[in-house]
Amino acid sequence: MDTSEKEGKLFETIKLLDSYLRNNDQKIADILDEDVSFGHSNGWIQNFEDFKKDFSSKKVIYQAIHQTELSEIKHYKNTASIRRKIKVLGTYKNQDFEMKLALLEIWIQKNTGWKLWSRQSVEIKP
């Protein structure tokens, strides 16, 4: 698989991640590494089991996730580092929210495709 093909697969997987989050689709587990770490903008950190439990309980419900910028892609062996910005609308504990987030995502290429290994989000204040 050449570099542009690998990158195309990665971008497809990133779109899937956003779609699965937005649709509360349990298939999200298929693209998460078992060692995944989510760092949320409120300081909350989740591992794979925490994420699955909270996701299935619909603790956070996303109405929309729009990528507004892809600012950096770096590759090292079977790892890719992505910096991007997204705009999200959703509900957390019955409170609606809208925010812009800067994300740093680390993806690992495995036999079955790309898996999210780590993600850190930071809120971009207006």
UniProtKB/TrEMBL annotation:
Residues 16-116 form the DUF4440 domain. Pfam families: DUF4440 (PF14534). It comes from the Bacteria. SUPFAM superfamilies: NTF2-like. This is DUF4440 domain-containing protein.
